[in-house]
Automatic annotation (TrEMBL):
Residues 45-140 form the TF-B3 domain. Keywords: DNA-binding, Nucleus, Transcription, Transcription regulation. This is TF-B3 domain-containing protein. It comes from the Eukaryota. Gene3D superfamilies: DNA-binding pseudobarrel domain. One of its GO terms (cellular component) is nucleus. SMART domains: B3. The keyword DNA-binding applies. Residues 1-30 are annotated as: Disordered.
Amino acid sequence: MEQGEGIPSNEVENNQMGNPQTTPISNSGKSEIKEDEFWPLSGKPYFSVVLSHSQVNGLLSLPVKIVRALPSSSVSVILSYCGKNWDMVYLGGHSLKRLDSGWKTFAHDNDLKVGDACVFELMDSSSDVFRFRVQILRGDFPAELEERVNGETSNTPIVLD
């Protein structure tokens, strides 16, 4: 196929593994949708979180739901998203069970914003390494809800029908 032939100007060709695919590109040059970005959960342990300001810019504490499946000590964690891996440490020996500063790198590399949601599915676990497959759901909140998402009006709940 000639370059540009049959491909809209907002798409680029992705020739991984010899399979031509197209990936829509936004005006900013960042990928909007990737084919391997969304999938059904497999029944393995998972947790999800809608990101707050402190989670985007620093710490990601893990909910009790998933902490029960993890050790009470520090172990290596690999987050996998769109074919890339980020190494970090789960700090299970601390009172606040969380990921170390590697989380901040993951958040920055994937341009996470307040209101985005992440689904973490525990794919593999051993005594020394835990691998989570991550789905990122981008939050496109209407302007009238944006203030609430940013925590400026926490006394007023958001009701979803």
